[in-house]
């Protein structure tokens, strides 16, 4: 039995459907990431799971019990969940008192509270801050206080809403390390909403993609990022190469797809004549100045139309009769002197292509 389950969950606001027919099951000890564009409904879903709001339709179950069965059940279930907001609120008191508040509300003795709080402050790297007023801390430090306060009560479920949003890269990295440490230390459910797709990949066992209030796909990170169900998901997870074509032959699921007169071979079971979209991650495209001796079935000549640096990588846009994007290392780009107008060969494997039905 899943610890958290939603059945046919809907939420409306101002006459608009914010969430539509959400069915979600999360098992004990599982880390589930909700990804999706701003306004997709991620925070709304977390608030419903935390019982802060009541759904317009559908039900939320905690450990098999309907959370709206009675106010008593609702209160008991809420005590087993902690929620860290995107912009956490801290009390105008010391870091120690902020972290201790949940334990005091539960009637724990002062000695036990002291032992628990000091241990947790050590875990989150705030041992030297316990007498500081929490409202004088930086954004990253406040986030650590909020996480410390949330885990102090030893919840069965930890909800995180955009835990590294609005933080500088160093603070964001520290918070992510802290979350990873919490996951390793405790066998709890973690459900986190994040716009950072790579963060979801790094931390989560499973990922759900919310678009316009609908859970359009859920599964392991490889499935989500390399086998998107439709164009919406493909675009959101960074599948920059989404190219429309038509299947002109298919023998043993090795299909030839016509794209503006150029032929791409891909592994797919789509039938001849079907209108499809070919999806390919930029990192799966190899760029060279001459044809490579390779087992890859696809090698297309083209001219570079644009290059731009992106950290240690160079994003290369190529006109192959259709636009194609590749990622190469800065070092490789410099060695090949890649620039606008350079003729190159783009090579990619048939198995690196994911084919979806065109809508």
What does this structure look like?
This protein is an alpha+beta fold. The protein is built from 10 helices and 20 strands. The chain has helices at 42-49, 71-78, 95-105, 110-123, 139-152, 169-185, 197-203, 221-226, 231-236, 330-335, and strands at residues 4-13, 16-26, 31-35, 57-62, 65-66, 81-84, 157-161, 189-194, 206-211, 214-219, 241-251, 254-259, 262-267, 275-280, 286-288, 298-310, 313-319, 323-329, 343-348, 354-357. It has a 6-stranded mixed beta sheet, with helices on both faces. A 5-stranded antiparallel beta sheet has the order 13-12-11-14-20. A hairpin with a 2-residue loop joins strand 9 and strand 10. Helix 3 (95-105) runs parallel beside helix 5 and helix 4 packs across helix 5. It is globular, with a radius of gyration of 25 Å.
Annotate the secondary structure layout.
Layout: E1 4-13, E2 16-26, E3 31-35, H1 42-49, E4 57-62, E5 65-66, H2 71-78, E6 81-84, H3 95-105, H4 110-123, H5 139-152, E7 157-161, H6 169-185, E8 189-194, H7 197-203, E9 206-211, E10 214-219, H8 221-226, H9 231-236, E11 241-251, E12 254-259, E13 262-267, E14 275-280, E15 286-288, E16 298-310, E17 313-319, E18 323-329, H10 330-335, E19 343-348, E20 354-357
Parallel strand pairs: 3-8, 3-9, 6-7, 7-8
Antiparallel strand pairs: 1-2, 1-4, 4-5, 9-10, 11-12, 11-14, 12-13, 14-20, 15-19, 16-17, 16-19, 17-18
Helix pairs in contact: 3-4, 3-5, 4-5, 5-6
């Amino acid at each position: 039995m899943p610890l958290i389950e939603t059945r046919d969950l809907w939420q409306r606001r101002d006459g608009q459907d914010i969430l539509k027919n959400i069915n979600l099951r999360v098992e004990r000890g599982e880390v589930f990431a909700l990804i999706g564009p701003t306004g997709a409904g991620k925070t709304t879903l977390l608030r419903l799971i935390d019982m802060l709001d009541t759904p317009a339709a559908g039900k939320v179950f905690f450990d098999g019990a309907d959370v709206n069965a009675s106010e008593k059940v609702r209160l008991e279930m809420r005590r087993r969940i902690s929620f860290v907001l995107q912009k956490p609120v801290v009390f105008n008191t010391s870091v120690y008192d902020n972290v201790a508040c949940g334990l005091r509300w539960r009637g724990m003795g002062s000695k036990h509270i002291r032992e628990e709080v000091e241990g947790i402050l050590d875990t989150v790297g705030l041992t030297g801050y316990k007498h500081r007023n929490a409202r004088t801390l930086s954004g990253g430090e406040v986030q650590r206080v909020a996480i410390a306060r949330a885990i102090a009560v030893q919840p069965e479920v930890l909800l995180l809403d955009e835990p590294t949003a609005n933080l500088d890269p160093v603070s964001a990295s520290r918070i992510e390390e802290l979350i990873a440490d919490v996951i390793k230390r405790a066998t709890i459910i973690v459900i986190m909403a994040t716009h950072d797709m790579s963060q979801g990949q790094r931390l989560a066992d499973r990922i759900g993609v919310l678009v316009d209030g609908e859970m359009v796909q859920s599964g392991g990170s490889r499935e989500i990022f390399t086998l998107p169900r439709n164009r919406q998901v493909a675009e959101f997870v960074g599948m920059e190469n989404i190219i429309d074509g038509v299947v002109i032959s298919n023998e043993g699921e090795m299909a030839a797809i016509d794209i503006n007169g150029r032929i791409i071979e891909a592994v797919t079971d789509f039938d001849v004549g079907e209108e499809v979209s070919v999806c390919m991650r930029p990192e799966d495209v190899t760029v060279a100045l001459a044809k490579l001796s390779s087992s890859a079935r696809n090698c297309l000549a083209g001219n570079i139309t644009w290059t731009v640096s992106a950290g240690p990588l160079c994003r290369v846009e190529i006109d192959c009769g259709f636009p194609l994007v590749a990622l190469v290392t800065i070092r490789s780009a410099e060695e090949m002197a890649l620039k606008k107008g350079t003729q190159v060969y783009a090579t990619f494997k048939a198995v690196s292509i994911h084919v979806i039905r065109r809508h």
